[in-house]
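Can't attach files on this board, so I'm pasting raw text. These are the components:
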Amino acid sequence: MQQIFNFLIRNKNTIIFLLLLVFSIFLTIQSHSYQKSKFISSANFLTGGIYSWTSDINSYFHLEEYNQRLLEENKQLRAKMANLDDTLNTMDILKISDSLYNETYTYRTAAVINNNYARIDNYLTLDKGRKAGISKDMGVVTSQGIVGIVENVSRNYATVISILNSNSRINAQLKKSNHFGSLVWNGEDPNIAQLTDVPSQARVAEGDTIMTGGRSLIFPKGIPIGTIEEFSLNPNQSYYNINVRLFNDMTNIGYVYVINHNKKEEIRELENTTNDE
Amino acid sequence: MNNVVISNTLRFIFLILLQVLLLNNINFLGYVNPYLYLLFILLFPFNASQTLLLFLSFLLGLGVDLFEDSGGINAAACLVVAYIRPAILRFSFGVSYDYQTIKFSSTPLGSRISYIAIIVFVHHLILFSLEIFSFAHLLLLLKKTLYSGIFSVILIFLSLALFSRKPK
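---
Top answer:
Structure tokens for the assembled complex are below.
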């Protein structure tokens, strides 16, 4: 017994070192596994508070740019609305159901208070959390394109797994045909993401637009992602590997929309009961 | 003694905030960032308890991880560096370390460079291996370690030159 104690005391530094090392490796492995709640994340009172404080100061320097973006978005929305009014007027026989009580997607606004893009696994932090109705697995977009998916939520803050994250996989499709693929990132250029698994039957050309596919319950169909920069067939000629230049400048994101699919639970439930049978 | 405790506490807090609010946003050439918070481990009193250093280094790294959403990569890298610090000190400063008589500012430049460079590169190698976490990006790992390492070493020397008290 005495010897065991002596051994422990003599090697206490090594033992403490090993214990703490195992703990930090555990945290690291946990951070590399996708879609798992972590207990070390920047969505907490302390780090969230400090980040929102600094981003308050920082956002003043970008006000003009944000205004520009809002003007641009307003212009697009107005153009869309004008077209829509025209079509609605010409088909006045058609009854429009009241979409307010039955809307599929809810949009919420939030500000980005921290944004990473230089690592392999990047995250963003938002200044709104559970209190503002944000929950896990909601989609995050800007007026220009998609940003990521909500991962951890605290009372006042949320972390978002960026599309610039090696664990991120987002369903995407070509705009001109219905061929689907997965949007991933290889960790190199923050302006270029990769679209994989597009079947070789699809007609692909440089400059084509890529948008979200609407197969997942996270993003609505048709949110722009980027344009095709270059493409090649994979070695066994069955799928394309496509480099996509993102519309969004991921290094400069100020305000975002958080999208909730209101019928997510209903669809999941239905799919689960179908699978069980 | 009290003075040492206070200065190290302040340094601990200041370096974490400086790292996460300013230095992590430099992203020179897209991915090169200096890791100045290593100064805490480098300058931690040589005659203080090794156990204390291990704990504080772990907390230092974990503090940075908390802000970066990076799991425990900084904590692990700091911990390893803190654990091997006595060996590196002995290697760089030779016999004088064993008698605990060295003053950091009065050591020869060569030993200081080797001490800082070894700690920085060991730290960066562990940090980036854990961050990238796959063998597929070996080249990226080496590039990041080299560039960020050089950046860190330069910045550490500059801040040491700026803030060190002149020997009277």
